[in-house]
Amino acid sequence: MTVYLIVGLPGAGKTTRAKELELSESALRLTPDDWQQAVFHGDGPTGWRARERADQRDRIEGKLVELGMRAAQLGLDVVFDFGFWGRDERSALRWIAASLGVRAQVVYLPVEDDEQRRRVTGRWSADAAQFRFSDAELTQWRAQFEAPDQAELSGGPVPPVPAGYATWRQWASERWPSLPQR
């Protein structure tokens, strides 16, 4: 079984690619945006990203990771459509997958700045319920984003866990508080 980690910034085509993999691989697609919009439907496009929702999103993602890894153990391919901007997030999930006997594949979707802005603006025009981002946020996020290197893309070794953590599972349980440490 394979867990696909869809990596990219907003507007990179992550959900489109995740949906393609969902069909071509008969995979379970887990997209936190879908869950957040359903659970907090009254918040609207700007409220979903409010500071008070950040912790809840992390908890939703943790439960989706738990569900997805269990599904992979049971014989399903899984597509995690999260974005995974940080190398540590990807490393933790690659390590967890390997510890369960499951293959992890990083799927990176780069997007140029102008194309990203065009796509995100197009979303708002087509669907008023879409998440909204300012140019300043897109610029800030691009600076924070850690693109995967060739080792990640080719399934190379997972780097050592950051200092202060015994395992990647422990790191992941702190990153996603609803994810059990077991």
Low-confidence spans: none
How would a crystallographer describe the biggest sheet?
A: 4 strands, parallel
CATH class: Alpha Beta
**Residue-averaged pLDDT:** 92
Strand content: 5-15%
Chain oligomer state = single chain
Distance between the termini: 20 Å
**Superfamily (CATH H level) name:** P-loop containing nucleotide triphosphate hydrolases
Number of helices: 9
Structural category is alpha/beta
Predict the CATH topology. Rossmann fold
What proportion of the residues is helical, as a percent range? 40-55%
Instruction: Give helix and strand order, one letter per element, not per position.
Output: EHEHHHEHEHHHH
Keywords:
single chain, 182 residues, alpha/beta, Rossmann fold, 4-stranded parallel β-sheet, 4 strands, globular
Summarize the structure.
This is AAA family ATPase. InterPro entries: P-loop_NTPase. The chain is α/β, with parallel strands linked by helices.
Written account of the structure:
The protein is α/β, with parallel strands linked by helices. It is 52% helix and 12% strand. It is built from nine helices and four strands. Strands 2-3-1-4 form a four-stranded parallel β-sheet, sandwiched between helices. Helix 5 (87-99) crosses helix 9 (168-175). It is globular and about 45 Å long. This is AAA family ATPase. InterPro entries: P-loop_NTPase. It comes from Microlunatus ginsengisoli.
Write the layout of secondary structure elements.
Blueprint: E1 2-7, H1 14-24, E2 28-30, H2 32-39, H3 44-47, H4 51-73, E3 78-83, H5 87-99, E4 103-108, H6 113-126, H7 135-144, H8 150-153, H9 168-175
Helix pairs in contact: 5-9
